[in-house]
Write a structure and sequence with these properties.
Rossmann fold, 6-stranded mixed beta sheet, alpha/beta, 34% helix, 2 domains, elongated, Alpha-Beta Plaits
Length: 320
């Protein structure tokens, strides 16, 4: 790990120790190391284990086996030291509706030992950064979902943590607010901070992350930079085909076409074709369909993307 801002996790987590049996395995031997100063993404569908991973790293969930470290501190053995180093934005805002936005920030700063002058200055700066200055003295119960999310992130930044955890930070945000959030994340990272965010938004992972881990059913199925992961897809292009009458030799004939790297049956009525080219392959596919007595009913061409990578490894969409 080296510096304080990185973290490592090796865990098998079935959730909290308080949960009754039978337990559901949320993480299955997951192992990750995040470098100081890195923006790292956990990309995967709902229920993949992303939030549980964040829970283990932020002291909220105790793994049934394995270990997690923030810098030199083992998370469960050094909870106080770890909490001083991290800021956490949960998937759902948990703001105190009896306080104003400014009070939430100031009280959070006081909790982390900031002096009166410093916490007031930071509160003013963060309200301005997140475009909440005009709502700073208003109760949060009247805030929109996007405003509450912005305030939650501002609160997590109040004590200037070395590591910032963002669990689905842009879920439910309008495009303008999402762009603002991305700019703030990049700026915070440029100040030398380490950021881990969970998402099932491929565009977000591609735009923000230095590296990412795609996880499914509590396991890491791919790890690397967005560009290297997209380059690892056979051929790059994915053609999702549907046939009204799929014949036995159809897949073999498709595999023989020039530029086709891999062909996979899809539900018995379709095929996923990974190839070096996209649209130019359609006439040849149509000709094969006619010659084999198959009926080509639908074609969807997908360019190299993280979605295609997930499809290749799991056979289903991240959105499923």
């Amino acid at each position: 790990m080296g510096a304080t801002g990185g973290f490592t996790i090796r865990a098998d987590a079935k959730g909290s120790k308080k949960q009754p049996k039978p337990q559901i395995t949320a993480l299955d031997g997951i192992s990750l190391e995040v470098n100081p100063g890195e923006i790292f993404c956990l990309l995967g569908p709902n229920g993949a284990g992303k939030s549980t991973t964040v829970g283990v790293l932020t002291t909220r969930v105790r793994a049934t086996s394995g270990h997690a470290w923030i810098g030199e501190y083992e998370v469960w053995q050094n909870q106080v030291a770890v909490k001083m180093l991290i800021g956490v934005v949960p998937q759902r805002p948990n703001l105190d509706f009896s306080l104003t936005a400014r009070e939430i920030l100031v009280f959070h700063g006081a909790y982390f030992g900031l002096g009166s002058k410093e916490r007031n200055q930071r509160a003013d700066s963060l309200l301005e950064k997140f475009k909440l200055t005009d709502r700073g003295n208003q109760m949060t119960r009247g805030f929109s979902g996007g405003m509450m999310q912005r305030l939650s992130i501002a609160r997590a930044m109040m004590h200037d943590p070395q590591v910032l955890f963002l669990d689905e930070p842009s879920a439910g945000l309008d495009p303008q607010t999402r762009i603002l959030l991305w700019e703030i994340i990049r700026e915070y990272n440029q100040a030398g901070k380490t950021i881990l965010l969970t998402t099932h938004n491929m565009e977000e992972a591609d735009a923000l992350c230095h590296r990412l881990a795609i996880i499914d059913h509590g396991k890491v199925i791919a790890l690397g930079t967005p560009s290297s992961l997209k380059a690892s897809i056979p051929g790059g292009y994915l053609l999702r085909l549907r046939f009204g009458n799929q014949t036995p030799d159809l897949l073999q004939r498709l595999q023989s076409l020039t530029g086709v790297r891999e062909v996979r049956s899809n539900d018995g009525a379709g095929a996923d074709v990974y190839a070096d080219r996209g649209g130019s392959l359609i006439p040849e596919i149509a000709a094969v369909a006619v010659s084999t007595g198959a009926e080509l009913s639908d074609v969807n061409i997908l360019e190299p993307s993280l979605e295609n990578l997930f499809l290749h490894h799991t056979g289903r969409s991240l959105r499923d």
